[in-house]
Amino acid sequence: SADIKILAIESSCDETSAAIAVNGKVLNNIIATQSVHENYGGVVPELASRAHQLNIVPVVDQALKGANIDKNELSAVAFTRGPGLMGALLVGASFAKATALALDIPLIEVNHMQAHILAHFIDDPKPKFPFLCLTVSGGHTQIVLVKDFLEMEVVGETQDDAVGEAFDKAAKMLGLGYPGGPMVDRLAQKGNPMRFEFPKTEMPGLSYSFSGIKTGILYFLRDELKKDEKFIEDNMNDLCASIQHTLVSMLLQKLRKAARQYKVDQIAIAGGVSANSGLRNALNDLATQENWQVYIPAFEYCTDNAGMIAMAGHFKYQKQEFVDQSISALPRMKF
Ligand code: KG4
Ligand code: ZN
């Protein structure tokens, strides 16, 4: 038939995921989250690769079965080429190449960051071009001007840490588990965001920097703990609320600047940190002020998933943008 059936693979970090898109509709998005990293306070690359290796076949099988599709019906296979962890990416890339070879179907490479943005086209409502997307996760912090499905320009990004990393490192200093972002969010809801002030790093243009605030929090806590060893436990909610407030206002300040600069009123957010309730509330308030239309994908499609890779794969299939077997993973892949 003329139906476009894409199998997509995502393995850039610590989720092994497979999804199917039929004519641009994502049918089944299977995600195996690796719990092995929790004991280490962060993703351990070597362990991630091994877990991908174990998970990839069952995850792909489940995606095909769930979508009720036989592998021989597939039109193409899409995979995350980068950016991400080399060993992790290699598992997905090798699996996708072997599948394309065995089934004699086209192979499609996908940029993980572009895919995060294309996740907005999985469900309704969909943003209209041009729009700005703030992609915020454990590995990325970018403002992207999206002119068309595959035509995007990074207009601002972090020069050091990602904002999710700042959330996670702050959580670690407070003695919360990993990943700490969701925990900070939960405790912040009971705290006073104005209680403590942390120095924000001023950056030129639309650039971000989140490494300074990490050090600021570290020194602040060290000094307070010298005076009162129970400082953290007695002020936990206010600390979380104040840290979150600082990070969120840094994010939104540049987003507003970008929207004014590019005269765009369609604003999207993507990535794991877009789950943050403080960010969502502040974004909605700002949207009212600035007359923006805001788009936030379902949580399933905010964090790393193959549904977004399938969506990107579909758009590339329509343009016949295929790659051959000489392709390899690209850990520092740019747009
Ligand atoms: O997109 P994602 O699942 O993986 C990548 O890093 O690509 O994002 C994970 C990041 C982690 O840093 C995690 O702490 C953060 O997203 N995160 C949150 C929340 N939920 C996830 N940060 C703040 N508040 C949340 N509710
Ligand atoms: Zn991601």
TrEMBL record:
Residues in coiled coil: none
GO molecular function: iron ion binding; tRNA N(6)-L-threonylcarbamoyladenine synthase activity
Domain Gcp-like: start-end pairs: 25-310
Positions of substrate binding: T135, V136, S137, G138, G139, D168, G181, D185, N276
One GO location term (cellular component): cytoplasm
InterPro entries found in the cross-reference section: ATPase_NBD, Gcp-like_dom, KAE1/TsaD, Peptidase_M22_CS, TsaD
Residues where Fe cation binds: H112, H116, D304
Highest taxon in the source lineage: Bacteria
CDD domains noted in UniProt: ASKHA_NBD_TsaD_bac (cd24133)
Source species taxonomy: Bacteria, Pseudomonadati, Bacteroidota, Cytophagia, Cytophagales
GO biological process, one term: tRNA threonylcarbamoyladenosine modification
Protein location: Cytoplasm
Function: Required for the formation of a threonylcarbamoyl group on adenosine at position 37 (t(6)A37) in tRNAs that read codons beginning with adenine. Is involved in the transfer of the threonylcarbamoyl moiety of threonylcarbamoyl-AMP (TC-AMP) to the N6 group of A37, together with TsaE and TsaB. TsaD likely plays a direct catalytic role in this reaction.
Annotated keywords: Acyltransferase, Cytoplasm, Iron, Metal-binding, Transferase, tRNA processing
Names of required cofactors: Fe(2+)
Cofactor remark from the record: Binds 1 Fe(2+) ion per subunit.
Protein name (record): tRNA N6-adenosine threonylcarbamoyltransferase
Recorded family membership: Belongs to the KAE1 / TsaD family.
UniProt xrefs under PROSITE patterns: GLYCOPROTEASE
Catalytic activity: L-threonylcarbamoyladenylate + adenosine(37) in tRNA = N(6)-L-threonylcarbamoyladenosine(37) in tRNA + AMP + H(+)
